[in-house]
Structure formats: C-alpha cells, structure tokens
Amino acid sequence: MIDCRIPFNKPFLAGKETDYIRQAVESGKISGNGAFTQKCQRWLEQHYGFKKTLLTTSCTDALEMAAILSDVGPGDEVIVPAFTFVSSALAFVRQGAKIVFADSRPNHPNLDLDRVEALITSRTKVLVVVHYAGVACDMDRALALAQKHNLVVVEDAAQAIDATFQGRPLGGIGHLGCFSFHETKNIISGEGGALAVNDDRFVRRSEIIWEKGTNRAEFFRGEVNKYGWVDTGSSFLPSEIIAAFLYAQLEQLDAIQAKRKTLWNAYAQELSSLAAQGRISLPDIPAYASNNAHMFSIVCGSLQERTALIDHLKQNGILAVFHYLPLHKSPFYAPKHDGRELPHADRFADCLLRLPMYFDLTTEQVAAICAAIWQFFMRRG
Ligand SMILES: *Cc1c(COP(=O)(O)O)cnc(C)c1O
C-alpha cells in the first residue's frame, strides 16, 4: 500500500471553531436549537434568501424531512437521478415510495430534464434534482414540470452551497432544499446538514418534524403555553457543538470559496490542452450555472483507462477516486428497478475521476497532480 502524500480530501479549520465550541460548552447549553444553531440558520436565511432554515445532523436527515413533508407513501413514485448518493433515494424509500431512476445528461452527471417528463405518471409525487459537483440543474425546466404535474421539487444541494442557477441560490429554488456539511463538502462540521424550506405550506410542519413530532419550538418562542406530541418526526436537530463548529466555517465562507475557486481554475488551466486533444473531458458547466468549486473531475475514455490512471496517480502519491455506482444497479435496488438502461449514468460511473480538492491543497500540488496526469497520457501515446 502506497502512503499518499496528497489525499483526496482533508478536513480543515477555518478559524474560530474551537473557540466557538468552548463558548457553547461554557454557556451551559449544548443540546440542539440554541444560540449557535439560530446563528447558523439566520446566516443561511440572510445569505441565500431561504424562507426558513433548519440545521440537521446530515443531508440524509434533511432529505428524510423532505420525504416526510412531501407526504409520499406506498403507491407513490419519486423521480431520482441514478448517478447520485444513496441518500437522495433512500429517504423516500423509507417512506415506502417507489423510485423511478432517471439518466444523466450526455455531457454532465446531472439528470437530463429533457427526458424526465416521459417518466412522470399519475402516481409521481416528487422530483429530486441533484446539483452534482455544485453545478445547477435547469431549475426553470424542473419547476415547469412540477407545476404542470403537481410535483414537489426537492433539491439535493448537498454539494451546492453558495452555487446559483441564473443568479438564484441553489437549495432556495425548489420547494425544499437539502444541504450537507459532511467533512467532504465545501463547508464542514464533521457530519451535518440543513433543510431550506421555501414553500409556505411546509414551514410550520417542518419545525415540528424536526423536534420529534412536538411543537416544542413554538413553546420556547412563547407561542403556545404547553407543548406535546402533534405529528410524526424524529430527532433531526444537531447539538450546539456541531452548530458552533459550523458557524465558524460559515463566517469564513468567502475565503474558503475563493481558495477553492483558485484551485479549480488551476486544474482547468493545467488540463485544458489535454482536453482540447480529446484525451479527457472536463466539467461542462452550462451558462445558467455558477461554479462553487466543490469538485474537480475529469472523464476518461474507458473504465480500463481510468483504473490505470488511478494506479499511476497512486504510484505518485496522489489519491484520486471514482464516484457513484449507479443506484439502479445497486444490490439493494436493482431487483426493484424497471430494467430501463441508463447509459449516461453508467458511463459516468465507469469513467469519471475526482481529483484531490480541499482547502489546504496548494496550487503547487495541483500542478504536480496535473503533471502526473500529463505523464500518464503521454506515455500511452
Ligand atoms: C454528501 C451527499 C449526501 C449525503 O450527505 P450527508 O450529510 O453525508 O448525509 C447526499 N447527496 C449528495 C448528492 C451528496 O453529495
């Protein structure tokens, strides 16, 4: 086993994380929905215009809240891209819904909204859009389909903090938006997430589901004089220790994003002529989408070529990794899938390679990674 000098990801401190955690502990309250939770929620609402934001313990939990709020159950269908993380589908499977997997665009892992309408039936209730690598899906198309067919649009914006569609912040466009602060994302708290509630009809219920089906939050605001069990729900809220860590990161968002964009642009520049020669393809970002530099990935010509490149990079002390095994071929869901082929999702599963990307990476390291990639393709002739 080769010890990699350049890992794929590395968690980082933005500045005041440990100070804020100490403050939370010294305040005498470290359970959920305290001062730091409210600071984070207000920060997200003010920066991105979300109607209501609730911190969660993960994006998976935010997606589970979205599944409960959209009221799906047995007999209902939910459209989800096949090339995504398990949680985008799992949250709805737990409610008993059937997943109808959609293919990716030919030149980007995002779902192909031109071909979604053919998947809609009278039982379809939810459309899940995943903004892969923080690159927006065409939200005008998604919302038009939702309006026509009366669907709830859930944005899996796990990778999409600070990214936009035509200037509008992702996660704030669909009815519900789900974010992740897992240590592999742009803004981190170890594990963590948030639900953005953008539709009035979900606002009150979201807070109840968040607090184990009780109206405890209303009680603490003095809106009711006792609280009790009023709905379904779970314990979706994180502790103040997590929120304190997260707030320190949110405060430094501009610096974190600026650094990531510098790294992303360095990759794009170093690899552009390799792409121009047709040896690899680089991320295709449509004009309607911004770039939040969540990920830098390349697409190789074949699975064999990608495997050889991963090995070559590993020998140079660089850890590059492939991404999702498409969910329609997963051991859990393949027996339930309707058998449709999803060739673009399959190709990204076989050929997409993610390069190291984290705050502490340097442009010199990016240059070294790109030099190793060039060497690989020059040797292949
Ligand atoms: C990371 C990720 C998730 C899961 O986020 P957690 O916070 O780990 O639950 C869900 N969907 C996508 C697209 C992701 O990238």
Describe the protein in words.
- With 381 residues, this protein is α/β, with parallel strands linked by helices.
- The chain contains twelve helices and 13 strands.
- The strands form four sheets. It has a seven-stranded mixed beta sheet, sandwiched between helices.
- The protein is globular.
- The mean pLDDT is 97.
- The structure holds pyridoxal-5'-phosphate (PLP).
Query: Percent of residues in beta strands?
Result: 5-15%
The H/E string reads HHEHEHEEEEHEEEEEHHHHEHHEH
User: Compounds present?
Assistant: pyridoxal-5'-phosphate
Number of strands: 13
Shape: globular
User: Sheet bearing the most strands, described?
Assistant: 7 strands, mixed
Helix content: 25-40%
Cα end-to-end separation: 28 Å
Helix/strand structural class: alpha/beta
Low-confidence stretches: none
List the helices and strands and how they pair.
Layout: H1 17-26, H2 35-48, E1 52-56, H3 59-69, E2 77-81, H4 86-93, E3 98-102, E4 104-105, E5 108-111, E6 124-130, H5 139-149, E7 152-156, E8 164-165, E9 168-169, E10 176-180, E11 193-197, H6 200-210, H7 216-220, H8 240-251, H9 253-276, E12 296-299, H10 303-315, H11 343-351, E13 352-355, H12 363-380
Parallel strand pairs: 2-3, 2-6, 6-7, 7-10
Antiparallel strand pairs: 1-11, 4-5, 8-9, 10-11, 12-13
Helix pairs in contact: 1-8, 2-8, 3-4, 3-6, 9-12
Bound molecules: pyridoxal-5'-phosphate.
Pyridoxal-5'-phosphate binds next to α3 and α4.
